[in-house]
């Protein structure tokens, strides 16, 4: 790739961010389409997020993905938020048009496409879901599940106050869906909910490269339930491994990464994303 004075800059803001496969995926897409752009990973501490958002405007960065732990906090620094992102209460994609910053959420659509592709799950009507995590990614998952007709969602999170806040946010929007929350350490409740759940989803950072895994007593998960772990690095998390051991269909988060990336790319460039090249780059990472 030729980098010159016309090269445009894209990237991802996160902390930590070194685990991310997004640079490989988006640079492969730029190369495939002959777009003179480059995508980099920026390790942004929470206390400098406001300045980092200022740099998008001042340096003319064309587009940014947002990952842990900034998906909620970035919203207050943007000029406009899409209805999907407002609905989820989280932004993972920012488009810069002449200094005007528009926040989107492509995790919602990415999650739904990934569950259909990997676990053949399209219709959530009547399903009971156990969701681990209450951060930015959990908000996208909750939004997707609520609009797709889930019957009940039980959230388990390390910090119970965050679980309470996220639960209240969605309960207010979806009064007919039963949304409950518990502390992740409440093992009796966790065991009880596993026995009633059709789908188990990990949207927390636990199990990601450099993070400890959480001990889920998967032997209590309802028979024929499916397991989705948003984490894609490592490729086979402890959760996915143990789910497969107990004969549950299980998938990591690689397809979600692909589909949210495809949507971000199309928002930024207005071009049809080269999905095969993006997937190839992800598989090579
Ligand atoms: P976030 O907003 O920072 O939230 C992190 C969540 O993980 C919180 O619920 C946090 O609990 C929990 N957590 C962190 N460390 C933990 C630990 N050791 N034990 C138990 N819980 C822990 O981050 P995020 O944006 O939601 O991202 C979460 C994960 O999803 C990351 O691994 C990210 O890479 C992945 N993700 C993947 C995709 C994809 O496309 N596949 C998309 C989005 C996100 P507390 O509230 O107690 O801090």
The number of helical runs is 10
**Number of DSSP strands?**
12
What kind of sheet is the major sheet?
6 strands, mixed
Content-based structural category = alpha/beta
- Distinct ligands: NADP nicotinamide-adenine-dinucleotide phosphate
- Biggest sheet, spatial arrangement of strands: 2-1-3-5-6-4
Q: Tell the overall outline.
A: globular
| Radius of gyration, CA atoms, in whole angstroms | 19 Å
Layout of helices and strands, plus pairs?
Blueprint: E1 8-14, H1 22-33, E2 37-43, H2 49-59, E3 63-66, E4 80-81, H3 83-88, E5 93-97, E6 100-104, H4 107-119, E7 128-132, H5 136-147, E8 152-157, H6 160-173, E9 178-183, H7 187-194, E10 199-202, E11 226-229, H8 238-245, E12 249-251, H9 254-269, H10 275-284
Parallel strand pairs: 1-2, 1-3, 4-6, 7-8, 7-10, 8-9, 10-11, 11-12
Antiparallel strand pairs: 3-5, 5-6
The structure holds NADP nicotinamide-adenine-dinucleotide phosphate.
NADP nicotinamide-adenine-dinucleotide phosphate is lined by residues 67-69, 71, 107, 110, 133-138, 157-159, 162, 184, 203-206, 208, 211-212, 214, 230-232, 253, 256-257, 260.
Q: What does it look like?
A:
Helix content is 39%, strand content 20%. Helix 1 (22-33) packs across helix 9, helix 4 packs across helix 5 and helix 9 packs across helix 10. The chain starts with 7 loop residues before the first strand and ends with a helix. The strands form two sheets. A six-stranded mixed sheet has the order 2-1-3-5-6-4, sandwiched between helices. A six-stranded parallel sheet has the order 9-8-7-10-11-12, with helices on both faces. The chain has ten helices and twelve strands. It is an alpha/beta fold. It has helices at 22-33, 49-59, 83-88, 107-119, 136-147, 160-173, 187-194, 238-245, 254-269, 275-284, and strands spanning 8-14, 37-43, 63-66, 80-81, 93-97, 100-104, 128-132, 152-157, 178-183, 199-202, 226-229, 249-251. Helix 1 (22-33) links the parallel strand 1 (8-14) and strand 2 (37-43). The structure holds NADP nicotinamide-adenine-dinucleotide phosphate. Residues 67-69, 71, 107, 110, 133-138, 157-159, 162, 184, 203-206, 208, 211-212, 214, 230-232, 253, 256-257, 260 line the site of NADP nicotinamide-adenine-dinucleotide phosphate (NAP).
């Amino acid at each position: 790739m030729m980098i010159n004075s016309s090269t445009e800059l894209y990237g991802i803001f996160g902390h930590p961010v070194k685990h991310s496969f997004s640079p490989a995926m988006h640079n492969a897409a730029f190369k495939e389409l002959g777009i003179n752009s480059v995508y980099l990973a920026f390790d942004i501490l929470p206390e400098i997020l406001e300045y980092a958002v200022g740099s998008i405007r001042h340096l003319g960065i064309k587009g940014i993905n947002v990952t842990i732990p900034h998906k909620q906090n970035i919203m207050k620094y943007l000029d406009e938020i899409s209805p999907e992102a407002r609905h989820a209460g989280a932004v993972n994609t920012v488009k810069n048009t002449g200094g005007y910053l528009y926040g989107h959420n492509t995790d919602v659509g990415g999650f739904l496409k990934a569950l259909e592709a990997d676990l053949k799950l399209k219709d959530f009507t009547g399903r009971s879901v156990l969701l681990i995590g209450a951060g930015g990614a959990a908000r996208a998952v909750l939004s997707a599940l609520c609009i797709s007709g889930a019957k009940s969602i039980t959230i388990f999170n390390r910090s119970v106050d965050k679980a309470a806040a996220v639960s209240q946010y969605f309960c207010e929007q979806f009064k007919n869906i039963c949304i409950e929350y518990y502390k992740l350490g409440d093992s009796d409740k966790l065991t009880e909910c596993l026995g009633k759940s059709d789908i188990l989803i990990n949207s927390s950072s636990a199990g990601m490269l450099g993070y400890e895994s959480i001990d889920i007593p998967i032997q209590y998960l309802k028979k024929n339930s499916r397991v989705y772990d948003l984490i894609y690095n490592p490729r086979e998390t402890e959760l996915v491994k143990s789910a497969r051991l107990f004969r549950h269909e299980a998938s990591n988060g690689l397809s979600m990464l692909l589909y949210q990336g495809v949507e971000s790319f199309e928002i930024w460039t207005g071009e049809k994303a080269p999905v095969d090249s993006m997937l190839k780059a992800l598989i090579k990472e």
